[in-house]
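Quick one, C-alpha cells below:
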C-alpha cells in the first residue's frame, strides 16, 4: 500500500500515453495544436509496462488510460493487452473523445475493460464543431451507441463553459432518462495551453446544480463512491445518474487517491502541481526497481495537501496554463 504524507491511500494511476489529439477543443489547446513531443520524448510501451508493473507491486490497483487521445497512439491495443496481464491490477479504464474508438470496442470488452469515460461537451453538431474545431460529432455519437450496445459503464464528461455550452446542460441531463449513463459536468479549468484567456470560473458546481434543480426539482443526492471526484445525483424515473465535478473548486482533494504520469514520463502527485518527478530520466539512467520505488515513494511522501497548495507551490512565473493534453486529461 502506498500512503502519502497526509495519510491518504494511493491506489489509482492516471496514465497519459500521448499528448496528441485529433480534436482541438478550445479550452485545451490552440487551434494549431501545441508543440507535440517527438517519439523519443514519450515513454515507450516497454517503459510504461515496467513502471506500471512496479507501481502495481507498490499498491496501485486501478489504471486509467488518458491522453491527449489514447487511440491516436499506434498499437494502443497491444499496450492494453499487456497491461491487462499484470498480476494485481484489478481495473483498467479509459478516457477517450470517441472519434477513433468504435472499431476497438469489441476488443476492449474482451480484455475485461468495463468503464469508459467519453468526452462530449454538447449534443449539438454545430456547437461540437465550434468547441472542437473538427467535424466529428457523428463519429462520437456512434461510439456512444456502440459502448452502450456492448454493455460498458459509460460516463459522459462535459466541461461547462460560460457562453459556449451552458444551453447543453439540460439536454445532456435528459440523456439519463432512457440511457444507463452517468453524465458528469466538470468545472472549466485554466489548463488551456493559452488557447484563450481564462477569466475565472463563471459556472461552479453549485451554479450547475442549481441550474439542473430548477428543471428537475426532485433531483436527489445519492451516495458517492469512495474517492469519488464527483457529487452524484439521481432524478426519479431516470435510468442514469448525474455527477458534478468541482475540478476548479477542488473540494474533493481531501480524499484524493490518484497520481498521474504524463506522456513525457513525469509523475505528478496533483493535477495542479508544477514540476513532478522525472521518471523517464530514472528509467533511462538504468535505475534499479528499488531505486525507482524509493524515488516514487519519496515524491508521494511530499504531496501537497490539496490543489490550492500545489498551485501555490509552483515556481514563480509558472502560472497554470499548460494544455491538459500534456498532463493527462
Amino acid at each position: 500500500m502506498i500512503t502519502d504524507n497526509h495519510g491518504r491511500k494511493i491506489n489509482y494511476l492516471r496514465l497519459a500515453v500521448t499528448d496528441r489529439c485529433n480534436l482541438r477543443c478550445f479550452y485545451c489547446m490552440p487551434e494549431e495544436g501545441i508543440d507535440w513531443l517527438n517519439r523519443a520524448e514519450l515513454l515507450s510501451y516497454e517503459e510504461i509496462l515496467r513502471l506500471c508493473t512496479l507501481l502495481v507491486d507498490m499498491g496501485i490497483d486501478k489504471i486509467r488510460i488518458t491522453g491527449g487521445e489514447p487511440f491516436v497512439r499506434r498499437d494502443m491495443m497491444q499496450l492494453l493487452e499487456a497491461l491487462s496481464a499484470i498480476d494485481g491490477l484489478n481495473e483498467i479504464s479509459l478516457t477517450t473523445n470517441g472519434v477513433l474508438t468504435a472499431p476497438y470496442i469489441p476488443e476492449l470488452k474482451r480484455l475485461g475493460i468495463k468503464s469508459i469515460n467519453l468526452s462530449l461537451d454538447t449534443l449539438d453538431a454545430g456547437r461540437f464543431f465550434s468547441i472542437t474545431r473538427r467535424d466529428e460529432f457523428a463519429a462520437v455519437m456512434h461510439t456512444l451507441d456502440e459502448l452502450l450496445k456492448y454493455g460498458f459503464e459509460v460516463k459522459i464528461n462535459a466541461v461547462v463553459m460560460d457562453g459556449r455550452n451552458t444551453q447543453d446542460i439540460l439536454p445532456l441531463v435528459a440523456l439519463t432518462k432512457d440511457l444507463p449513463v452517468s453524465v458528469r459536468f466538470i468545472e472549466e479549468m485554466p489548463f488551456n495551453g493559452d488557447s484563450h484567456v481564462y477569466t475565472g470560473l463563471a459556472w461552479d458546481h453549485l451554479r450547475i446544480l442549481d441550474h439542473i434543480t430548477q428543471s428537475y426539482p426532485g433531483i436527489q443526492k445519492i451516495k458517492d463512491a469512495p474517492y469519488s471526484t464527483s457529487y452524484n445525483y439521481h432524478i426519479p424515473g431516470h435510468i442514469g445518474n448525474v455527477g458534478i465535478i468541482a475540478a476548479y473548486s477542488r473540494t474533493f482533494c481531501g480524499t484524493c487517491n490518484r497520481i498521474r504520469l504524463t506522456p513525457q514520463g513525469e509523475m505528478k502527485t496533483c493535477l495542479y502541481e508544477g514540476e513532478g518527478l522525472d521518471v523517464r530520466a530514472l528509467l533511462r539512467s538504468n535505475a534499479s526497481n528499488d531505486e525507482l520505488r524509493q524515488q516514487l515513494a519519496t515524491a508521494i511522501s511530499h504531496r501537497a495537501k490539496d490543489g490550492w497548495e500545489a498551485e501555490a507551490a509552483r515556481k514563480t512565473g509558472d502560472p497554470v496554463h499548460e494544455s491538459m493534453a500534456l498532463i493527462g486529461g
